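Quick one:
INPUT:
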């Protein structure tokens, strides 16, 4: 039998999700499967190819040499499958209408534009209304068609898909670090200025859980707006916590104490069950799911 006929796309998709998340449980959540089902699909692919694709290292899975060779081809298949799905969703070029997307101000400004360029190519008649806000918009009240959130919604009428677990670190401008020095210990880090964002007491409490003991005196400037807070950090007013996707792509910004364990936060894509049956919303939802679930560009 031809080897190309001995496995199916669901097995490749299971392998791809496991490779990109690093664990069976995270991959199962990403695909909306149970962990045993996903594990069986990966095992079936390994059996069909007669190779071991993963090896367990501690609590995580790491690709074997054979798995790394397969990963590049699997990603190519995934991109092809996405193009097929978009085409099958109903001649996306002819889909039109407005779709409102809500996300944080930082994600709206720094992360989503490349996805929207791709959407413009696929469905040029779709109109996008971006709601840049750091609060949680209620899709049940139709304040948005699609939401990107960092907490899982609990309402039963919503469809939520975990796309990735993103990371964040402390960042500072080169000019600021040249002036104040680059800390090497938590004690030295605690002597620096920081940019506040949101509720200051909650932020201090959160950082205390990371064994970083700060007071209000460390935060002499800040903003409720994430874009403004990041602009202040770029201008050298102090250090800021920022997602690695944004921080690493910003010229003149450096990671502070990169050996520290990064802050991890989930990225959920959410829509209403009824809205998910809309052709235009389905096209946008699927494109965002594909874009945001891939490794940082």
């Amino acid at each position: 039998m031809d080897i190309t006929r001995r496995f199916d796309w669901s097995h490749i998709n299971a392998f791809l999700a496991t490779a990109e998340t690093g664990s069976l449980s995270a991959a199962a959540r990403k695909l909306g499967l149970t962990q045993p089902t996903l594990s069986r699909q990966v095992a079936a692919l390994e059996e069909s190819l007669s190779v071991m694709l993963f090896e367990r290292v501690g609590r995580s899975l790491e690709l074997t040499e054979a798995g790394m060779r397969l990963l590049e081809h699997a990603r190519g298949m995934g991109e092809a499958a996405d193009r097929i799905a978009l085409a099958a969703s109903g001649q996306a070029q002819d889909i039109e209408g407005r779709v409102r997307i809500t996300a944080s101000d930082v994600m709206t400004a720094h992360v989503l534009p490349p996805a929207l360029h791709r959407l413009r190519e696929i469905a040029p008649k779709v109109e996008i209304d971006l709601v840049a806000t750091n609060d949680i918009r209620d899709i049940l009240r139709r304040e948005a068609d699609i939401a990107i959130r960092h907490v899982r919604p609990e309402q039963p009428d919503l469809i939520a898909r975990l796309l990735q677990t993103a990371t964040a670190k402390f960042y500072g401008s080169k000019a600021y670090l040249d002036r104040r020095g680059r800390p090497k210990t938590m004690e030295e880090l605690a002597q620096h200025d920081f940019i506040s964002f949101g509720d200051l007491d909650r932020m201090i409490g959160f950082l205390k859980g990371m064994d970083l003991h700060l007071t209000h005196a460390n935060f002499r400037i800040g903003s409720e707006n994430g874009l403004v807070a990041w602009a202040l950090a770029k201008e050298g007013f102090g250090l800021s916590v920022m997602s690695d996707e944004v921080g690493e792509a910003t010229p003149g910004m450096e990671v502070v104490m990169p050996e520290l364990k990064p802050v991890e936060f989930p990225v959920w894509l959410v829509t209403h069950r009824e809205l998910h049956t809309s052709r235009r919303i389905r096209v946008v939802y699927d494109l965002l799911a594909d874009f945001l679930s891939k490794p940082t560009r």
